Amino acid sequence: MPSQTAGPTHVIKDLLDTAPRGTLHRGRIQLGSRATGADIALSYVVVVGREPGPTLWINGQVHGTEVCAIVAGIEFCRQLAPSQMAGNIVFTASGNPLALESRTWATQQDFGQNLDTSFPGRPEGFITERMAHRLFSEIVAVRPDLLLSMHAQGTDFCSKIYGVYKLPPNSPVEPSDLYPFMRIFEPFAICHMRVGPGADEHPGHHAGALDYQAMAQGIPAFMIEFGVAQRSTPDEVRFGVQCYFGVCAELGILSADHKTTGSSHSRLVTSRGHLNVDVGGLWQSDLNPGALVKAGEPIGTITDFTGIVVDTVKMPMDVLLIAVRQDPVVHSGDSVAYLAKQWTSLDLA
């Protein structure tokens, strides 16, 4: 398998421009090296269809614990027949190979920087910034017709599949451009994530997200929270493969035979956030992701280590549970749920 060193050229763009039609290519783009001399590299699969057409780019993870979409992506590429394609597919398994290898959410070499707040990156910065710069420069050079930024729910939580999009100022891409592809993943919710001062959804610089920066460049892009971190089940992988095929059919890369029904409706979430607790102890909840909890109803309880309930966790407004914590051990300030606070019905038919 070829390995190219990082440089002024764009490996994947050059490959798409020069490779014979109807061919599949695998390789690695060198991003740097470890102390031992081992490569830090960005793995890719490029499938060039027999006929010209649109390009789909799937990035399997930006955080090292998000693995289910990678497994599904590898299996998807195995099943592709370039001779039956009109267009191209690029699959980058991980934008964060160091975190993947260490089984951590972020890269530990540079203070645990979040790759998904680091785009477009810096070629001479910390290793996370270098990884961001290399991946993003390759994407911008190709300008795919659609970019899927795949994620997974954190290891402490469970959730259903949901989608996220962000709208940079003056982006030519509209949400309606994204919905036909997002619906294929059957998301129980689609979240319009606000980015900027006062958004209060997540700590961090989310204008540095891969999908946000792509949208700012006019490249249609969104996130799918697919599965739970550090696990991959056969059913999830099969569903992921089905969804990738469905996206290709929707783009016209594959025939309509691969189209999937998807969801005809979902919920458009316009305000969400973490539910952080004030006291530590053991968290318990009987509720599942997707549950609607009315104002003042209990979401869960926290008991101390003698069995005394020290807090019954509630919210002053109706909320929709996006994710629920499964790890019972909590400290003050920990999140026990991820909540939608404002949402409307969304027709995807």
From TrEMBL:
<dbReference type="InterPro" id="IPR055438">
    <property type="entry name" value="AstE_AspA_cat"/>
</dbReference>
<dbReference type="GO" id="GO:0046872">
    <property type="term" value="F:metal ion binding"/>
</dbReference>
<keyword id="KW-0479">Metal-binding</keyword>
<dbReference type="GO" id="GO:0016811">
    <property type="term" value="F:hydrolase activity, acting on carbon-nitrogen (but not peptide) bonds, in linear amides"/>
</dbReference>
<keyword id="KW-0862">Zinc</keyword>
<dbReference type="Pfam" id="PF24827">
    <property type="entry name" value="AstE_AspA_cat"/>
</dbReference>
<dbReference type="InterPro" id="IPR053138">
    <property type="entry name" value="N-alpha-Ac-DABA_deacetylase"/>
</dbReference>
<dbReference type="GO" id="GO:0016788">
    <property type="term" value="F:hydrolase activity, acting on ester bonds"/>
</dbReference>
<keyword id="KW-0378">Hydrolase</keyword>
<dbReference type="InterPro" id="IPR043795">
    <property type="entry name" value="N-alpha-Ac-DABA-like"/>
</dbReference>
<protein>
    <recommendedName>
        <fullName>Succinylglutamate desuccinylase/Aspartoacylase catalytic domain-containing protein</fullName>
    </recommendedName>
</protein>
<feature type="domain" description="Succinylglutamate desuccinylase/Aspartoacylase catalytic">
    <location>
        <begin position="52"/>
        <end position="242"/>
    </location>
</feature>
